[in-house]
Amino acid sequence: MRPIRVLVAKPGLDGHDRGAKVVAAALRDAGMEVIYTGLHQTPEMIATAAIQEDVDVIGLSILSGAHMTLIPRVQDLVRAQGRDDILITGGGIIPKEDVETLERRGIGRLFGPGTPTTELIEYIKEWFATREKQEA
Amino acid sequence: MTKLKSPSSNGAPDNELIATIEEQSAELRLLRKEVAEWRKKYDKGELRDIAFTNSEKELRPIYSPLDAAETSAEALGMPGFYPYTRGVHPTGYRGRLWTMRQFAGFGSARDTNERYKFLLAQGQTGLSVAFDFPTLMGYDSDHPRSEGEVGKCGVAISSLADMETLFDGIPLDEVSTSMTINGPAVILYCFYIAAAEKQGVDSKKLRGTIQNDILKEYMAQHAWVYPIEPALRLIVDCFEWSAEHVPQWNTISISGYHIREAGATAAQELAFTLADGFTYVERGIARGLDVDTFAPRLSFFWDIHNDFFEEIAKLRAARRIWARHMKDRYGAKDPRSLMMRFHSQTAGVTLTAQQPMNNIVRVAYQAMAAALGGTQSLHTNSMDETLALPTEESVQVALRTQQILAYETGVPNVIDPLGGSYYVETLTTELEREAEMLFKQIEEVGGVVRGLETGWLQRKIHESAARQQWEIEQHRRVIVGVNEFVTDGPALEIELLKIAEETEREQGQRMAKMRSTRDSAMVEKRLAALREVAGTSRNLMPYILDCARAYCTLYEIRAAMETVFGAYREPVFF
Questions:
Q1: Nearest-neighbour CA in chain B from A7: distance (Å)
Q2: Cβ separation of A8 and B139 shorter than 8 Å?
Q3: Which value does ipTM take for this structure?
């Protein structure tokens, strides 16, 4: 199986990148190909990078409270390019009811503080295996 | 043993003195023997995880006078005297308790103004402004990049008009105000000074702090605007101008907090922060300023993490290192230049989303460490901060935690009560040594600015963060309720603060109104003057203040200087 390609991205003005960098390193150590955008990215920059880099997964890290604006916008931009096969997942300080609203909108799982990296690695691997099976 | 000369005047040996020395060395021999026997019998060299501090420093199972003897009496001194290991005030908390200063800000200036009045009514003794992300980055509330972020993580302040609302009904000559702002710090500072003018308060009467510590932004917190060199110039401009015009103001709060939160160990927090401090001092001196004109207004800010004694030792070591370097390396003579005064905050990163009530206990222990370390002011985190901004109720519990510590526990009753503890003194000295080692490494990579440009400092912090995550996942580090003592079943539901979506729209409307009523010719004139002076080496503060007075907005002022300075680009890696 080819390696899973992941874009780890920091949307908005939030400068907290400890989590994003730790997750990026953990995904890389789990054998994935990881691209990290750096800080202060607009949804447009993230969607463009995801498509140019032909990633399977976009991992959004957001701790600023702007998730209800920024996450749907990334999703819309990616879909507008016909790429609704890309998994959009992520984590941060996101209240439960917002997580539920976003999941209903087709966003993948959103992980909260204290999640072991093994849990999200497993989630991404399972999602990828299921998608590959469907395509086969 | 060296032969001692008798102090007596006739040259005859002083038998009494010799007897005392012999007695003392016999006691020392006995102590060595006892410690050696104890270790032989009980210290089997098996290391449980508790053989390390939170920062991976290996600990002996027991400390004795033999360890503490490595710290000389001169390295301790008395409280209020060089090298200030035991505190900067001769009377400690016997003279005056620490300032209880809860960091707060959300929504509009009006919403936050109400929270401040509530906190002052609850007995809080100082204010601390949390700005939203657009403000922290120098964007107005109606800038496209601010969309979705206005008022979310702090209060939105885009011009003097918002600052006036924020402190409406709060006399600025009676409170001290701390403002956590860095990239555009001097702009918000000028809004504050202009708001005070509107209240009829002279800038010489203003008391407070702006964080204004840009080096740790590049290192850890990442709310930057300009490239490193022009950003440092603005900070030195601020030092120079404030010494004359706002003499009671702390022009910078050199912060370890964010460095630690980003993953650094206690020793890294200590060393990187002090190295930042030395860099600012060197820049001030390079400008031609006398160190004693600006150094007394430099203040610090520390993170108080879980390891109780390590945190206390860190604070004591920080004071000692600062005093020594300021005196020996930078030639400061005013004692106030040697004294490290600091604010502390309990460590946000230690709070857990799981079983959030446990956070009250974590915060209480951390607050006690801050008090035992001699902090000048303290913010205690609220239990719900890993989930959202805190509710009024949880902020009240956090403030009550400080009040219980101050008035019920007896902890503040005696100055530096842990002074002389074999363990704490040893740890203080060891942290000092480790910091000195890290200063050497920083020097080897070319200093702080070079270390930031190459990403060396950021990498060190990231490596520590990655190691801590690994330790937690391997259960080498226990986090109660997260990787051990996990409760099955539904998470405890606690009420969360929600920021109304109307905040952004209403703030946009206020901005539009303000823009249409101000004197736009004056705005243009002041901004043009600022742009022009930005290209010279003149002090920018008076020009920024003139812009603030004319209701130029945050982003307009930021952009005026950006045309000359350019923008910062981070080195991206993981």
A1: 12
A2: no
A3: 0.92
